Amino acid sequence: MADKTESKQEQTRSQFASYLRSLADQLESGDEVRLTVGNKDVTVHPPESFDTEVSVVERSAALRGNKETIELTAEWKVK
Questions:
Q1: pTM above 0.90, yes or no
Q2: What is the domain extent for residue 26?
Q3: Percentage of the chain with pLDDT > 90?
């Protein structure tokens, strides 16, 4: 069984950068990472190394305008 918690919201560049900075600081400093996702707090326990993926999508759409997406994924097995 998989539990998925996700949230979509609009943020300023500064707000999103702060969120990522907090995540990065926690990854460097400890064994657990606490994330606020929407109205839920989630704690994960990443190992010292894990698989990562970064993808960028650039779309051109005649009617809806151009759109760009950055997707960051970090994945590991829980021991």
A1: no
A2: 13-75
A3: 78
